[in-house]
UniProtKB/TrEMBL annotation:
This protein's name: Aldo/keto reductase
Keyword Oxidoreductase assigned: yes
SUPFAM superfamilies named among the record's database cross-references: NAD(P)-linked oxidoreductase
Xref: InterPro entries: Aldo-Keto_reductase, NAD(P)_OxRdtase_dom_sf, NADP_OxRdtase_dom
Lineage: Bacteria, Bacillati, Actinomycetota, Actinomycetes, Kitasatosporales
Pfam family, one: Aldo_ket_red
GO cellular component: cytoplasm
Keywords tagged on the record: Oxidoreductase
Source species of the chain: Streptomyces olivochromogenes
Superkingdom of the source species: Bacteria
Sequence ranges assigned to domain NADP-dependent oxidoreductase in this UniProt record: 22-316
Amino acid sequence: MTDSRIANVELGTGGPEVGVQGLGCMGMSFAYGPTDADEARATLERALELGVTLFDTADMYGLGENEKFISPFVKAHRDEVVLATKFGIFRDTAEPTKRTIRNDTPYIRQAVEGSLRRLDVEVIDLYYMHRRDVNIPIEETVGTMAELVREGKVKHLGLSEVTGGELRAAHAVHPIAAVQSEWSLFSRDIEAGVVPAVRELGVALVPYSPLGRGFLTGSFVNADQDLTSDDFRRTMPRFTGDNAAANAALLEPVRAVAEAHGASPGQIALAWVQQQAALLGLPVVPIPGTRKRTRVEENTAATRIVLTEDELAVLEPIASKVAGDRYADMSFSSAGRE
Ligand SMILES: NC(=O)c1ccc[n+]([C@@H]2O[C@H](COP(=O)([O-])OP(=O)(O)OC[C@H]3O[C@@H](n4cnc5c(N)ncnc54)[C@H](OP(=O)(O)O)[C@@H]3O)[C@@H](O)[C@H]2O)c1
């Protein structure tokens, strides 16, 4: 299978070398309905065979269950896997639907110990602040994260859903290897403020939900009708009601480009992320999430698709036409603070 392996890239200036596509593990324990655990485990192994090395989790995915789930895989391949996890969204077991953002030092110290324990590793390769708590100066938060690097608990630092200004302030305290934010054919708000800062500082961009949470693959249209009652996507304005139908129509040009390449719409969405990043001069490692071997094969194969200038022009206007925000509460995103 050597020729189907994906290429490698440096994860930001001075960051670790990783496969050009990572794997989002969230859905294996959280947010996207029922999971077949055996197939999910096999998906982790298949991804690694295909050259995927950046594996993404967070302490809040399934209240720690996702970290526990991937731990045996990570430990079995510790030298090959670049392990990324996150702190900052506190969910109480007594009240799991409520989320509180915490960036204070005592919380970070408690969170990192919890992640190290659940993952059962000595060090986290990439430790992200998952969300920004605006009540705590970012310099203070990153100062604490830098202490974790000095103490050997963490190797590299990342930030998720920060604004360009927040990234610059953080990077002045300690080098930031990666910014993780939503970026896809459907979600391009970060191009205004975050992308210029990322490029200027040599930070890697790790786009999450590059498949538009699965919508860009055409695997569902209306979250209320097509997904299980506990699926997180039912809270997202763009996937429900009239918005869902209007947005599904936006996939027509994606399907047409896919057909021309003998590819799937999801592969075109992934190829777009890689190619748009190259045009903007950004190191990029998208982390599509899947729990299925055939899909990780399909997704990694997308790194070999090259879109023409005409195709990129056809895809260009899609994001501006999307109906509905990406979160019900946009203060949860960097765009809500730009
Ligand atoms: N930093 C943050 O705030 C944040 C937020 C959200 C996500 N994330 C991270 O980013 C990762 C990816 O984001 P995401 O999972 O939200 O969205 P995504 O990667 O855009 O889409 C995932 C969805 O697409 C489906 N899918 C994947 N490949 C497919 C294919 N080839 N054909 C058809 N369907 C396919 C998956 O279903 P199956 O699993 O059933 O294949 C899943 O429902 C997450 O796993 C998580 O690690 C981070």
